[in-house]
Amino acid sequence: MAKETWVTGFALFAMFFGAGNLIFPPYLGMESGELWPLGLAFFVLIDVVMACLGIYALNAAGGGEVAFQRTIGKVPAVILNTAAIVCTGVLIAMPRTAATTYEMAVVPLLGAQIDMLPFSFAFFALVLVLTITESKVVDIIGKVLTPLLVIGIGALIICGIANPLGPMGAPHSDTVVQDGISAGYQAMDIICVIGYSIVLQNALKEDGFKKRGAQLKILTFASIIAGVMLTLIYGGLTYLGATTSQTFGFGLDQAALIVSITENLLGRTGVMILGVVVLLACLTTAIGLISATAEYFRQLTHDRLSYRFGVIFCVIAGLLICNLELDNIIRWASPVLTLVCPPFMTTIVLILFARHIRSKRLYQGAALGAFLASVPLALNDAFGICTFVEAMPLFSYGFMWLPFAILGGIAGALIGRWRDECPPARPPENPSDPASPQA
């Protein structure tokens, strides 16, 4: 069991750690300067802690789909889970892995010698080979790809600690806490937990761990392993960014910053190492997302859509969408995620307290409140309308929807209690019964 726990933990770390997670911490460090530990703490809280707790909560509550159905109901659960799975495994996060790899690994090394289209064919062909056999997904990621990924990032961080790029100064930002929360919110690993929990649970069943208790024990410690690894890696990357706060131009974007850090530390060799790291990070994330999506739809359709069909469909979708280019994918993905993430995050957090929450209407009210608040947020993000949301509390933190989720949960709990105390009257079986009001 100890071996399986470590392999599962490595796999979970690699699934969460995509190229987006690689570029957020250094930029946060550059903004935060000498206050980088503070920004890092809130980034880790929102991204790492929430995601790992989500994996635990879903499996402790009976598994991803079961947990949602027991709380918000079957139809809302299917809608919310499917929206999250489609966003991560079909439309946004998965095709973005190929586009990110091309722009951060291929272009810096080879320029325009290789076009996006042939590269994307090669990328997704490799993903297809590594994903098509369901039972091997976790082993491939946990035993092979993750160690290579950690070695590459570790080499970069160690060089940066041994030879700092410059002194740390005062932060460039007056909102270090908000920046950490915003970066963690943008990473949005929590929206992947429904699919990843399904993949990991099935992999453990394939390895002979049939009992829920054994699965939960492994996944609990695997989540801790993944959380510690993510925190250490993010800490190192944030530190690297902080050492550039006084030496690099603040106008660098996130991708350019990590490339510049690497080039200054390790030269051209470092850029090659970064290319390998980005490739591995995106590859492991793509494998995890595609396998999770394929397995989700297999279960949802009761094997009418096979796992292999789902993998092939996702690969084709990723191939088509990634050629829209990274900037375009990010641009139209933002309002979609703004709409989907708040009710999903709300439900995940409440599932943590499933043993203490008896009212299904509390879950439903909270999720509905979060969703209704996210609609004007998405409209503001996409079309610049509903600008009144910018004056709402917690908008600058990315959590304008949170008070509405709380109010919705309270309203749902009160409605649930009222309905329990005042059930609808049933017509008497015998109208002539003396106890009947009609008698």
Give a brief rundown of this model:
The protein is 75% helix and 0% strand. It has 439 residues and is mainly α. Helix 4 (64-72) crosses helix 5 (74-91) and helix 12 runs antiparallel to helix 13 (307-322).
Q: What topology emerges from the helices and strands here?
A:
Blueprint: H1 2-16, H2 19-32, H3 36-60, H4 64-72, H5 74-91, H6 93-110, H7 116-131, H8 137-162, H9 176-187, H10 193-206, H11 212-242, H12 254-300, H13 307-322, H14 326-351, H15 360-383, H16 402-421
Helix pairs in contact: 1-8, 1-11, 1-12, 2-3, 2-9, 2-11, 2-12, 3-4, 3-9, 3-10, 3-11, 4-5, 5-12, 5-14, 6-12, 6-13, 7-12, 7-13, 8-11, 8-12, 10-12, 12-13, 14-15, 15-16
Describe the structure.
The chain contains 16 helices and no strands. The protein is an all-alpha fold and 439 residues long. Helix 3 runs antiparallel to helix 11 (212-242). The longest helix is centred in the middle third of the chain and has 47 residues, at 254-300. It is globular, with a radius of gyration of 23 Å. The model is unreliable at 431-439 (pLDDT under 50).
Features:
single chain; 0% strand; 16 helices; disordered C terminus; 439 residues; mainly alpha
Number of helices: 16
Largest sheet: none
Report the order of strands and helices. Answer: HHHHHHHHHHHHHHHH
Q: Any idea what the shape is?
A: globular
**Can you give the mean pLDDT?**
83
Roughly what percent helix?
Answer: over 70%
Category by helix and strand content:
mainly alpha
Q: What low-confidence regions span 5 or more consecutive residues with pLDDT below 50?
A: 431-439
Q: What is the CA–CA distance across the termini? A: 68 Å
Estimate what percentage of residues fall within beta strands.
under 5%
Rg estimate, integer Å: 23 Å
How many DSSP E strands?
0
